[in-house]
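I'll show a typical protein example:
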Amino acid sequence: MVCGGCDLTRITLSGDLSNGWLKSADLSASDLVFANFTAANFEGANFNGATVNGVNFTNADLFGAKNMGTVAWLVPSIFSNTTCPDGTDSDNNQFGCFGHF
């Protein structure tokens, strides 16, 4: 999926979206449901009020992602070698990217 800067407000994303390019996309109030975002780029994306349910963020880039603290995390998601919104590596943080939004 290549959708940099696009408006994905209130949609549902699921399935294999690995290597997706969603840089600066607006994901406000969206549902990310058991999606595979391995190696996806979310730099500067807006997650305001999104719901995340069992998503794989392995090797994904969330640097500068906005409003991650407003996300409803329903089922644990995978953070492995993920660049967190604050620029840290999830593997060096005790709880992945949690606390590093």
Summary: The beta strands are 12-16, 31-36, 51-53, 72-75. The first strand starts at residue 12 and ends at 16.
